[in-house]
């Protein structure tokens, strides 16, 4: 099979029909009839699954992978890639914020400049000031903590070769941060500036974004643990210096020290640092706990596909 188009479904009922039509047209122009459209239902609460299954009854190019519950966008994408059979795989969101027509654009770019991945980046990040500000600082802090220069404002839409996807699927993390996996898989990856439309309300709340940030940092860097060590070392050095100062003052000045406020402040400061440091260590321990259990990161309830004649 020459081409697989992979997309995930979550509250996507309003977009499925148009996405299917436009993606099918693009695929036919590019490879004729030798393609498939893999739709992964990530526990969507609306009737996205029913609409997708209905497509399999009329179009044998459509394959629907129904997950047993909502596992999250990144894990659903990895599951879709695992079910894709094409020589080239086009990954895209179904909500039409990224146009299916980018498939031809990316394919032409891949042909003119041989590479394994052509991925879309926003020339200007969409959304309100909070989304733009949080997105900007996410990449700054991630780069500072991990040393990995993730492409800023990268979107889901990307065309990949078979060998790249096979290499990507060798990662077996239980806690998936797919942007990081895209980067560390390597190969030749070329960005392509695109415009991302604002067609739907994002399902990524501020809490989910913060959780994603913590997961991304702890998945790809031990910087927080190293930071704990150096912070503890700095506090110990300050304590030693302060102790020497107190002894010196007691020996040569013999004045009573008035320091109730400073003592209490120090106790609260050290107590807060200890608790926060234990929390950071706990996050890493929870990841070790999750990885050692080796549970599958998604469970497929059923795969729907029409048998080709």
From TrEMBL:
<feature type="transmembrane region" description="Helical">
    <location>
        <begin position="267"/>
        <end position="285"/>
    </location>
</feature>
<dbReference type="InterPro" id="IPR029044">
    <property type="entry name" value="Nucleotide-diphossugar_trans"/>
</dbReference>
<protein>
    <submittedName>
        <fullName>Glycosyltransferases</fullName>
    </submittedName>
</protein>
<dbReference type="Pfam" id="PF00535">
    <property type="entry name" value="Glycos_transf_2"/>
</dbReference>
<keyword id="KW-1133">Transmembrane helix</keyword>
<keyword id="KW-0812">Transmembrane</keyword>
<feature type="transmembrane region" description="Helical">
    <location>
        <begin position="225"/>
        <end position="247"/>
    </location>
</feature>
<keyword id="KW-0472">Membrane</keyword>
<dbReference type="InterPro" id="IPR001173">
    <property type="entry name" value="Glyco_trans_2-like"/>
</dbReference>
<keyword id="KW-0808">Transferase</keyword>
<dbReference type="InterPro" id="IPR050256">
    <property type="entry name" value="Glycosyltransferase_2"/>
</dbReference>
<feature type="domain" description="Glycosyltransferase 2-like">
    <location>
        <begin position="4"/>
        <end position="148"/>
    </location>
</feature>
<keyword id="KW-0328">Glycosyltransferase</keyword>
């Amino acid at each position: 099979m020459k081409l697989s188009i992979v997309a995930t479904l979550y509250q996507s009922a309003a977009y499925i029909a148009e996405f299917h039509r436009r993606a099918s047209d693009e695929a036919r122009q590019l490879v004729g009839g030798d393609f498939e459209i893999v739709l992964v239902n990530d526990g969507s609460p609306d009737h996205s699954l029913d609409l997708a299954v209905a497509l399999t009854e009329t179009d044998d190019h459509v394959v629907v992978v129904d997950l047993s519950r909502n596992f999250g966008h990144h894990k659903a994408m990895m599951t879709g890639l695992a079910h894709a059979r094409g020589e080239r795989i086009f990954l895209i969101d179904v909500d039409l914020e990224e146009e299916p027509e980018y498939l031809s654009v990316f394919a032409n770019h891949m042909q003119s400049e041989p590479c394994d991945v052509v991925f879309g980046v926003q020339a200007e990040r969409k959304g309100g000031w909070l989304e733009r500000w949080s997105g900007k600082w996410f990449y700054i802090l991630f780069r500072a903590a991990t040393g990995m220069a993730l492409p800023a404002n990268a979107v889901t839409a990307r065309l990949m070769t078979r060998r790249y996807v096979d290499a990507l699927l060798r990662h077996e993390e239980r806690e998936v941060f797919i942007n990081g996996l895209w980067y560390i898989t390597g190969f030749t990856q070329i960005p392509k500036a695109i415009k991302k439309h604002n067609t739907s309300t994002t399902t990524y709340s501020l809490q989910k974004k913060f959780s994603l940030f913590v997961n991304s940092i702890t998945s790809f860097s031990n910087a927080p643990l190293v930071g704990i060590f150096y912070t503890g070392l700095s506090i110990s050095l300050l304590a030693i210096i302060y102790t020497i100062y107190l002894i010196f003052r007691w020996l040569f000045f013999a004045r009573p020290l008035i320091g109730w406020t400073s003592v209490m402040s120090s106790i609260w400061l050290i107590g807060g640092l200890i608790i926060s440091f234990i929390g950071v260590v706990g996050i890493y321990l929870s990841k070790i706990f999750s990885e050692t259990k080796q549970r599958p990161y998604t469970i497929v309830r059923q795969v729907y596909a029409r048998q080709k004649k």
